Amino acid sequence: MTPTRRLWCPDRARYRPRMIGEDDLVLRAVEGDALALEQLLRDATPFLRAELGIDPRWRRDLDAEDVLQVTFLEAFLRVRSLEQRTVAGFRAWLRQLTRHNLVDAIRALERAKRPSPKHRVTRGPDGESARTLLLSLSDGRQSVCSRASLAEDVARLHAAVAALPASYRLVVQQVDLEQRPVTELAREMGRSEGAVHMLRSRAHERLYELLRT
Fold first, then answer.
1. Does domain 4-113 have CATH number 3.40.30.10?
2. Radius of gyration of the chain from Cα atoms?
3. pLDDT tens-digit profile of 17-76?
4. Contact, 75 vs 202, CB < 8 A?
């Protein structure tokens, strides 16, 4: 059923109903209409949940709702980049975000069960964790540290962390900078370990983008 929205009609000083198609909702969402995006996400939730198959081995550490929550946060952050601005294109994009989050969570959980020296968290001198995070963000790509001194890069990193969404910022501050275990933070947040790993992966992507600007 095509949703009905009430639009303000100034010439008659009253509201009148106008039928808005689903593709129009997508266009409005891309233009920044949060209510339109919320409606699209509500409509998409049942099919995303039905398609989200989590291996039984990981269900103790990862919940479907965790995957969807991170996906929806990413949708709010990145909807302006949507290329196919139709309901079909929007839902295909959501599927891709959901799968990406699920794959990242499972990979991180696998690494946590078999930690290597590269991924093991160790405590070091003050500021060392920020330098380690900078190196991690530049791994295999153009260095984010190349344009200024290390001290300036660390200051830029902290500014970028402060600009993250609250849940992303919390995970980076606690896991990457304070070097707290994911399991401990997950208990404190009331989230699964997989959720914290997903938030951290998406936060790192966002930080890399912010540091490139």
1. no
2. 20
3. 334 578 899 999 999 999 999 999 999 999 999 988 888 888 888 888 999 999 999 999
4. no
